[in-house]
Structures are given as C-alpha cells and as structure tokens.
Design goal:
184 residues; 6 strands; 32% strand
Length: 184
C-alpha cells in the first residue's frame, strides 16, 4: 500500500500500532483472581454546606457502597442526638464484604474471577452534585481505599457554605466476572 508523503516504515509502524491496540484493550478486561474480604469503616460526616439527617446519611452511604459492589452491608447510624432532621455530625458504622485482589488476601480464601469496572458515583452535573462536594471528598478518602480502588477521579472544589457545581467522583473497582453483563 502506498500513501503519498508517508514512508513505508512510518506506514508499517502505524499499521502495527493499530493492530496491537485491540490486543491491549482485551488484556485490560481480562479476569483477575479476587477474594471477598470483610471490611469495617467508622465514618463521621463533617460538612459545612449540606447537612444530613442520620437516616439520610445512612441511605446515601448504602447507595454509594451498593454501586461499588459491596456485599453483606450492615450500615448503622451513629452520633444521632435527635430522631429527625439534620444532625450536626452524623455518622455510620459500616461492616461489609468487598472484592480485593487475591494477592492481597489471606492464603486459603476462596478465589473467583473478577474484572475491573469503572463506577461513576457522582456525574458532576446539576444541583445535587454541587451539594455533595464535601461528602464525595470525604467518601473518596475514607471508603475508596477499602475497595482497593484504582483510577480514582475526584473533581471537587468545595467552598464552605456554597453549592459548588461540577463535583465528580469515579473509580475502578473489582466486580465478580459473572456480574459483568449486569448494569451497575
């Protein structure tokens, strides 16, 4: 094949690069060995802009952890001084199981095929995203390390007492290989 102005060696390099690209993409989605591991997190939300009730924070944490693939969730509200309305420093005590790479697990734990999947926890658009800036920032630093998450992307410019639009949080976490076709 001859392309005007392009040498054969450059053309050959481009063709080789294009042919190798699908192989690289396929290897990125190859199954990895993983194990379910128990995790415990005690989290107290400290926000200046948006305040949560104890049940509201609990429900939001359950929603986020479920999207990340946590199992056997037990989320208990803590630090609640009154039964309803916004709490000053609501918290949650969380017990769950998450998938972790088998190399980081105890010997003898049952292994399963898993794959890395990108999960968008907050898309960055709208009023809701702006109001969750503080929660997403705290969630990223407290919960995502528990998942052995990778490719974490947090875009947040939190200004106390102001709704700051554009907050985005996403990460890659492990999901069971059989669950690949399900939407999360």
């Amino acid at each position: 094949m001859q392309v005007p102005g392009v040498s054969r060696s450059v053309l050959a390099a481009l063709v080789a690069m294009m042919l190798s690209a699908p192989v690289f993409a396929a290897s990125a989605s190859a199954p990895v060995q993983a194990v379910w591991v128990p995790r415990h997190v005690y989290f107290v939300y400290r926000g200046f802009t948006v305040h949560y009730s104890c049940s509201g924070l609990r429900d939001e944490i359950v929603r986020l952890l479920t999207r990340l693939g946590a199992r056997d969730l037990n989320v208990r509200s803590v630090g609640c001084m009154r039964p309803e309305g916004p709490a000053r420093f609501p918290g949650v005590d969380v017990s769950m199981r998450v998938l972790a790479p088998a190399a980081r697990a105890a010997a003898g734990a049952p292994r399963l095929a898993a794959h890395w999947k990108k999960v968008v926890l907050l898309s960055g658009s709208g009023y809701r995203a702006g109001g969750q800036c503080e929660l997403m920032t705290q969630f990223r630093h407290t919960f995502l390390p528990v998942f052995d998450a990778r490719a974490i992307h947090l875009r947040a410019t939190c200004v106390p007492h102001q709704i700051t639009p554009g907050t985005h949080l996403s990460a890659e976490v492990l999901f069971p290989h059989a669950a690949r076709s399900r939407a999360h």
